[in-house]
Amino acid sequence: MSIKNITVLGSGIMGHGIAQVSAMADYKVVLRDIEQKFLDKAMEKIRWSLQKLAEKNKITVEEVDIFYNNITPLVDLQTAIHEADLIIEAVPEDFNLKKKVYQELNSLAEKNIIFASNTSTLPITELSSLTDRPDKFIGVHFFNPPQLMKLVEVIPGTRTDAKVTQEVTNYINKINKRPVVCNKDVSGFIVNRVFIPLVHEALFSMERDHVSKEVIDSAVKFKLEFPMGIFELADYTGLDVIHKASYEMNLRDKSVLLPHPKIKEKYDNQNLGQKSGSGFYEYKGDNYERIDLTMEKASEYDPYSIIGVAANNASWLIENQVCSIEDLNVALRLGMGLKMDIFDIFKKIGPSHVIGKLLELESKYGSFYHPNQYLYSIK
């Protein structure tokens, strides 16, 4: 088993980004989409990105053409997968759409080809059951944009062959990314299991504690040392992404988050954040605008429940051997931009304060807030 030729299905932001980083590692890549106009747009973006890298002296001018020519855009699916060793599916996060794609692949793909899904939340075991090769099926969750983000979560399903996991991990290393293996196919994998519930918790905190979103975001940024506030990060990520991830995670595991109706409301109203011009905050123009978060505002609020929910889900991952503490820290640093390790933040804020807050919330709102036993061992 050796991966040399890669086919990426879907030429959107994720698909053409994955194609580009693979081509830059000298893989031969076919980028496939259902219409030529989508491929033309994707190839334009790839050339623009490569030229930007050359301008910054990250690659040479000669390499722009070499890497660009490593990618062949095709519409015909059978031709696109003819020489593939690995097919990476990067179509939109819709289970029924993915089901259709895999049904088509089953009838066309040679039995030795590895299937990988770039899903951020859909269970890998469930997706693999749509195929005729669950042993050769794996999750590869790239982060947006793939050209810049170093992290890739590698998620084997329950029937994934260990050799496939190793081969795909080797591929991730070769494209100069940092693989983190999610040992169990759990809801949200690693990063989203910690991040997505925080958006809902920040909304509940705002309501329960009668504070503004700017105060909460300031506290999260300056007291928890997050790269930006939770509402700010949600707008940056996209509330369509947050909503879909929340829905899929909650559908399969009721214990992972406490859904706040505001997320669906914003999604239904197409208030998707930065991309739509309005989310939790208002935006003007294409450039990302930072919100005015200050130390003064941060001093007005202690975000105990927010770090409590984050540490609780992180504890669950460790206790259930989904990943090691080292991999957890790497994933949250690279995937969420955390400046401190999650349990170090928990210690800095004060374990007794955080656990006390979780117990208080549990008595009022139920078992979602029950402190994980692992938290008591952190000194």
Overall 3D form: globular
Distance between the termini: 46 Å
What would the average pLDDT be, to the nearest integer? 95
Summing up helix and strand content along with how strands pair, one would put the structural category as alpha/beta
Percentage beta strand: 5-15%
Largest β sheet strand count, sense and barrel closure: 8 strands, mixed
Taking strands numbered 1, 2, ... along the chain, how are they ordered across the largest sheet? 3-2-1-4-5-6-7-8
CATH architecture of the largest domain: Orthogonal Bundle
CATH topology of the largest domain: N-(1-d-carboxylethyl)-l-norvaline Dehydrogenase, domain 2
Write down the secondary-structure element order. Answer: EHEHHEHEHEHEEHEHHHHHHHHHH
Which CATH top level class of the largest domain fits?
Mainly Alpha
How many helices? Answer: 17
Helix percentage: 40-55%
Please mark out the parts with pLDDT under 50 across 5 or more consecutive residues, or reply none: none
Q: How many domains make up the coordinates?
A: 2
- Rg, nearest Å: 21 Å
Question: How many distinct beta strands?
Answer: 8
Protein name: Putative 3-hydroxybutyryl-CoA dehydrogenase
Enzyme class: oxidoreductase
EC number: 1.1.1.157
InterPro entries: 3-OHacyl-CoA_DH_NAD-bd, 3HC_DH_C, 6-PGluconate_DH-like_C_sf, 6PGD_dom2, NAD(P)-bd_dom_sf
Written overview of the protein:
The protein has 379 residues and is α/β, with parallel strands linked by helices. The protein has two domains: 5-181, 3-Layer(aba) Sandwich (Rossmann fold); 191-377, N-(1-d-carboxylethyl)-l-norvaline Dehydrogenase, domain 2, CATH 1.10.1040. It contains 17 helices and eight strands. It has helices spanning 13-23, 36-55, 61-69, 77-80, 95-108, 124-128, 162-174, 191-209, 213-222, 230-237, 239-252, 261-268, 295-298, 304-319, 325-336, 342-349, 351-365, and strands at residues 5-9, 28-32, 71-74, 86-89, 114-117, 137-142, 151-156, 178-181. The protein has an eight-stranded mixed β-sheet, with helices on both faces. A hairpin with an 8-residue loop joins β6 and β7. α1 (13-23) packs across α2 and α14 (304-319) packs across α16. The longest helix is centred in the N-terminal third of the chain and has 20 residues, at 36-55. The chain is globular and about 60 Å long. The termini are far apart. Residues 188-283 form the 3-hydroxyacyl-CoA dehydrogenase C-terminal domain. Residues 5-185 form the 3-hydroxyacyl-CoA dehydrogenase NAD binding domain. One of its GO terms (molecular function) is NAD+ binding. Its EC number is 1.1.1.157. It comes from Candidatus Nitrosocosmicus oleophilus.
